[in-house]
Write a structure and sequence with these properties.
By secondary structure, this protein is an alpha/beta fold. The chain has 5 helices and 3 strands. Strand 1, helix 3 (43-61) and strand 2 (64-70) form a beta-alpha-beta unit.
Amino acid sequence: MNAKIIASLAFTSMFSLSTLLSPAHAEEQEKALNFGIISTESQQNLKPQWTTFLQDMEKKLGVKGNAFFAPEYAGIIQGMRFNKVDIAWYGNLSAMEAVDRANGQVFAQTVAADGSPGYWSVLIVNKDSPLNN
């Protein structure tokens, strides 16, 4: 290979790497939130359903909102664990798994317009269990 081409490629690579590692680039990347969404159906069908939510989130927070789709909660938890997902909507069990496995933190709960809780859970035991209250 021509020495001029090698020097040019080396300079371009160093410039690109320094741009990617610069504080300004880091701040730019931090201005986006990746929102984890479980794909209960095809991503193409779900994306329009979440677009309004992500747009509202962008307006309120002043940062871009990106959708991160996965077919199951484990994929969203792994995405959070490896910094591909910043925020997600989990159920109780998956939220606790995200806390344990991905250093997640529960910070909000859905509520209906009238203020009633948006999610209820129950503890269930075997019908023959001595636990009854």
